[in-house]
Amino acid sequence: KMAADTSVEILQKVLEDEILQTTKVVEEHLDAEIQKLDQMDEDELERLKQRRLEALKKAQQQKQEWLSKGHGEYREIPSERDFFQEVKESKNVVCHFYRDTTFRCQIMDKHLTVLAKKHVETKFLKLNAEKSPFLCERLRIKVIPTLALVKDGKTQDYIVGFTDLGNTDDFTTETLEWRLGCADIINYSGNLMDPPFQSQKKFGTSFTKLDKKTIRGKKYDSDSDDD
Fold it and tell me: Which SUPFAM superfamilies match (predicted)?
């Protein structure tokens, strides 16, 4: 019993020492920063302030430029020709290939509307797959919904159906945001190693059958059960 108590005391002491050591390091770092600021003369502080203002101004100008190119809202584009124009003028583009009769496309729409407002650095578009047979052929889009992730004019990645989103209709906007972050198509501030759906076990995993659909003689897989 005494040996056990002694072990606990030693462990407690080690932990206390570690906490004190960490606190000391943090305090020393803060002291150094404060000292650095104290030693700055008026001119240096003014220059620091100017640099900060310039950075803010630049960020504001960048945001305005993005907004002028149609970022900041989730928009439908009417044709394939528009797709090429849109991806040419923006570095990061997410395009949702959808179909009116596919219920899962409406789920995707809901999340993309939220993300378009949050991630102004990326352009969010939707295009009717039935009106863009050439693009669907070229990009090998066979499952609806599919998101094409386009960087610098080149399609780098695809989100096909809901497979990458926890395999459930109930995936959260955060899950889709995480997946777009993995593709580096948005500025993602969370931890990429920690997918949000890992903590959503309550949804379970629902696998859905794929049923074949034909559009204008072409075969599409519909990632939907409502047809």
Answer: Thioredoxin-like
- CA geometry: angle at 224 spanning 223 and 227, to 5°? 130
For 125-155, what is each residue's pLDDT tens digit?
A: 999 999 999 999 999 999 999 999 999 999 9
Structure-token pair, residue 70? 């149609």
pLDDT at res. 97 = 98
C-alpha span between 180 and 187 (Å, rounded): 9
CB–CB of 74/113 below 8 Å?
yes
CATH T-level fold of 72-183: Glutaredoxin (3.40.30)
Listed by start position, the domains of the chain span: 18-66, 72-183
pLDDT digits (tens, 9 = 90+) for 187-218: 999 999 988 876 655 444 444 444 444 444 44
Q: What is the pLDDT of residue 204?
A: 45
Query: Mean of the per-residue pLDDT values for the chain?
Result: 86
